[in-house]
């Protein structure tokens, strides 16, 4: 675990890299684990003289790394990759390269990594969004805002079923959810829950749309909305809940005075990509997960 001083240094490094590259070098999960730590996580740093030149973090076989723009092309990225491989030992290793920058492909390809997953960031403007959608829902289904302290277990159960195929989202825990509820951006009014029946009298959660607002400077010069998590219980498929929740969430973000919204989707999820692009989203950025099997694996 890094010390408090290390965290401040790393956060300054992250800001410098984001300014230079136009993309955040760590995922939200990586930044939360940097700030709060996590059992079994490994933090690695390299220095150039007395200055912090690079940072990497390894959690459960997945890593992220960043080198300060002022200290690139000096071998610090190579040092971090080698130390990550050593830390992974005889286990497979995945490294996320945010923005799919040319230097990442050069660095990781030279160490036996191959492109394994591609995550697309899509965006669209909110000007054309219906500010008052009234989706047709079954008579016994209604949409309510998330209630902190009451709806966590129901949401986690549906989230796990909706994303049982997803290596990160489907494994979200109560502790992971609590960290996000404590973040300054968390807004239960933008966390929409579709219930069948009364949630306090045996009602069933069918799906949800959790929106997020990035402050100015985080995802653009102005504040930007996000379709953060949109999930429908497999048992509720065919009810057009995904479309209804999407429309309601986008209207909420427009109502916050935002001009743009982003989302992330796996490139190989062709149906979802077609759906979003058909609704006005365009490709904006790419993140790539690079995979390496251990020697002899």
Automatic annotation (TrEMBL):
Key word Acyltransferase present: yes
Keyword terms of this UniProt record: Acyltransferase, Repeat, Transferase
CDD domains registered for this protein in UniProt: NAT_SF (cd04301)
GO molecular function: mycothiol synthase activity
Protein residues bound to acetyl-CoA 1: 65-67
Signal peptide bounds: none
Reaction catalysed by this enzyme: 1D-myo-inositol 2-(L-cysteinylamino)-2-deoxy-alpha-D-glucopyranoside + acetyl-CoA = mycothiol + CoA + H(+)
Limits of the N-acetyltransferase domain: 1-135, 141-297
Positions that bind acetyl-CoA 2: 230-232, 269-274
Enzyme's top EC category: transferase
InterPro entries linked: Acyl_CoA_acyltransferase, Bact_Acetyltransf, GNAT_dom, Mycothiol_AcTrfase
GO BP annotation list: mycothiol biosynthetic process
EC number: 2.3.1.189
Subunit structure: Monomer.
Function: Catalyzes the transfer of acetyl from acetyl-CoA to desacetylmycothiol (Cys-GlcN-Ins) to form mycothiol.
Family the UniProt entry places it in: Belongs to the acetyltransferase family. MshD subfamily.
Protein name (database record): Mycothiol acetyltransferase
Species whose genome carries this gene: Blastococcus xanthinilyticus
